[in-house]
Amino acid sequence: MSGRARTARSKILARDPLVRAVRRAQRRGETVVFTNGCFDLLHVGHVRSLEQARGYGDRLLVAVNGDASVRRLKGAGRPLVPARQRMEVVAGLECVDWVTAFHADTPLSLIRAVAPDVLAKGGDWALDAIVGRDVVEAGGGRVVRLREVPGVRTTALLERARRPKRGRRPGRRS
Fold first, then answer.
1. Which class in CATH covers the domain with range 9-161?
2. Which of 90, 137, 87, 86 is nearest to 112 (CA)?
3. pTM for the whole thing?
4. Please, are residues 60 and 54 in contact by the beta-carbon 8 Å criterion?
5. Dist. CA 138–CA 131, nearest whole Å
6. Where are the domains of the chain?
7. Which helix (H) or strand (E) holds 101?
8. What is the dihedral of CA 79, 103, 18, 7, to 10 degrees?
9. Most buried among 57, 58, 77, 153, by the most CB within 10 A?
10. Three-state DSSP class for 60?
11. Which has the closest alpha carbon to 145: 172, 124, 166, 173?
C-alpha cells in the first residue's frame, strides 16, 4: 500500500481472495507459513508463537477458529470474544500478513486449499497429531512445532481470573 500502513481489518480475507493472495506470494518465490488456533484471549504465548512462525517464512497466514468451532472444542462458555474481533486482534500483529476464519473442527480443508510451504503448530501438539501434516509434506512443504511459553495458556488464565482472590475484604479496591 503506497506509503500507508495496512489496517488490521485489511489483513482479514475470505477463503477465495486468500487463496489468490497466497498463490501470488508463492509465484514471487515467497515462503508462506500457515498456523491456526482459537486465540480467544491473546497472550504472550500467542505473540511469541506467531513471531516464531513468521520466522520460518516470508508470509504468515493465521486461521482462526469460528465461534461454533471454539464452543465444540473448548465448551459452552467459550469463546469469550467473537471471531471477528479475535481475527482483528491477531491481524493487528506486525508479524501477521493474513487472517481468515474456518468453521470446521480442524483447518484441513483450508490447508488443502491454501497449500502452504510451512505448517506451524504449537509445541504442545505431537508431530503425528498435527492436522494437515500429510498434505503439506506431500506437497513438498514442511511441518514445524513452535516453542511453548510454560504456564501461559488461555484456559489457565481463565481459571485464575475466575478464582476468588484471597486476603481481600469485600468492598476494597486493589
1. alpha beta
2. 137
3. 0.85
4. yes
5. 13
6. 9-161
7. strand 98-102
8. -20
9. 57
10. strand
11. 124
pLDDT digits (tens, 9 = 90+) for 36-69: 999 988 888 889 999 999 999 999 999 999 999 9
Which bin fits 157, alpha (ψ -120 to 50), beta or left (φ > 0)?
alpha
Which grid cell is 141? 512443504
Q: Look up residue 31 and give its three cell numbers.
A: 515462503
Residue 142's beta-bridge partner residues? 118
* Mean pLDDT for back-to-back runs of 10 residues, the chain (174 residues): 76 98 98 95 88 98 96 89 96 98 97 98 85 97 87 59 63 52
The residue assigned the cell 486449499 is: 113
- CA–CA distance from 104 to each of 24, 70, 93, 142, 170 (Å)? 26, 10, 25, 23, 44
- Determine contact, residues 59/32, Cβ cutoff 8 Å: yes
CA 139 to chain centre: 22
- Average pLDDT in the chain: 88
Asked whether 62 and 50 are in contact (CB, 8 A), the reply is yes
